[in-house]
């Protein structure tokens, strides 16, 4: 089960890069989310159940590191993982373009849930600012980055790097 | 199926509850979080340094091209500032004389007698919604919640949580941040709020109708008795002004003096000394 080592390993590495160097490529306050992109990849390969589970775990890791609102990223990433997992048997896994569109949609969905949870947490941000200032730019940024790195990860997946026993 | 749904609902309810209680300002970071953050901080610091080094190396050729033009601009600016400095020295001496006459113990002048602790920025919030940074000084170095954080250019934010070796700082660009502020020359009050996303500008709201402000004016912290922030710290410069949707107030876009995209070191205000008169 190399997946039990590589997936958490990659998630931790992505998280470390996320809080340190990803900040250097911040554009107008928006950064791509490496952890989220990995969750999208994995959910697309393995389906809804794994997507939801690892989305929750990865999101919770991000929450622990950011030190506030534990569960905020966990719920939104689990939901995104669930959504992407639905496409597992419905779309071609080889295509970079498919992955790009899927990452865009997953980010929009995940960030919309995040935005709704912010209301629950009494952090009020106007819908216009949220959509044009964060959600859509973040989705575009994630989609672009996922297209750039997808092939490499897909080759690793084909070689069995992420194989593990079903949950 | 029913069992799984039941489990999911329970998990969701627990997650929603935990989310609420771990919000900043409600409870201290739980002990488990403390240990994790501290353990992570060392690695974070090393990777952040490596990342900055890589950026500097990559952007070096570009910076050379701009450097000579910048040198010319700066030398002109130095001349201008030197003449202004002379004038300021005059004012300073006059101010000190007048202060002695008035026995003036508090006010913006006191803010120049700050006790500061320098700290390096070792991490940043992983998402795009919030603007917080992690610094490499914590409770062990005397950092406490609500301390004001600045750079020599101006206001950065305030400490919202601490562990023994690190502290989290809520930047003034965060949508949860609100700073009671004044326009420096006209003393017009207002509230400076952060915005999610965007170019990192701030919003100054609740500017009274009868005290309009204009672009180019400088905004400083007001330091009123209820404010967490120290008085007289520069926040930014007004870029544009318009009426707010209710028509009762004006609101302004403020460009912060601090470059939040290149925040590497900050100063935490650990205390204020009374100026020796």
Automatic annotation (TrEMBL), chain A:
| Annotated GO CC locations | plasma membrane
This one is known as Rod shape-determining protein MreD
Transmembrane helix in keyword set: yes
- Mainly localized where? membrane
Q: Which residues cross the membrane?
A: 6-25, 30-47, 67-85, 97-117, 129-150
The Gene Ontology biological process terms listed for this entry are: regulation of cell shape
Q: Which family does it belong to?
A: Belongs to the MreD family.
Q: Which Pfam families match?
A: MreD
Q: Which UniProt keywords apply?
A: Cell membrane, Cell shape, Membrane, Transmembrane, Transmembrane helix
**Membrane topology note:** Multi-pass membrane protein
* Stored NCBIfam families: shape_MreD
> What organism does the record attribute this protein to?
Desulfofundulus australicus DSM 11792
Determine if Transmembrane is one of this entry's keywords: yes
Q: Which residues form a coiled coil?
A: none
Q: Where is this protein localized, as stated in its record?
A: Cell membrane
Superkingdom of origin: Bacteria
TrEMBL record, chain B:
Which Pfam families does this entry report, sorted A to Z? MreC (PF04085)
Instruction: Domain (Rod shape-determining protein MreC beta-barrel core): give its ranges.
Output: 121-269
- From the UniProt record, list the coiled-coil ranges: 64-101
Give the signal peptide as a residue range, or say none if absent: none
Q: Name one GO biological process term.
A: regulation of cell shape
InterPro entries documented for this protein: Cell/Rod_1, Cell/Rod_MreC_2, MreC, MreC_beta-barrel_core
Which keywords does UniProt give here? Cell shape, Coiled coil
What GO CC terms are in its UniProt record?
Answer: plasma membrane
Family, per entry? Belongs to the MreC family.
Function of the protein: Involved in formation and maintenance of cell shape.
Which PANTHER family does the entry mention?
CELL SHAPE-DETERMINING PROTEIN MREC (PTHR34138)
Q: What is this protein called?
A: Cell shape-determining protein MreC
